[in-house]
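Q: My labmate handed me this sequence with no annotations at all. I'd like to see what the chain might look like in three dimensions before we decide whether it's worth expressing. Could you predict it?
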Amino acid sequence: LSWNPRTARHANWHLPPHQTERMIITMDRFTYTTKGVCSRAIEIAIEDGTIAEVRFVGGCHGNTQGVAALVKGYSVTEAVERLSGIRCGMKSTSCPDQLAQALSAYLEKN
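A: Here is what I predict for the chain of 110 residues:
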């Protein structure tokens, strides 16, 4: 079967005939609405417990691009541990902290 990460939630790739197992790749995509920061939302793709893609909607473009690039390939739990509690100026949260909150919410549901 072919796999398109933008349209498929689950995909099966069949291994060579001499192997009888199937490899199942799961991809979850969701959008988190941020609170208390300049960015309006975060679009997140998680593949088998690893962050595959992050895109911030709004916010400081250079900073959010940097955060998105740095967390790509991290496990969800590692990203939460590293990003939780980061503040932006006098705000009680930040875009990285909001990403951690989004990923924590994902972990609670899955």
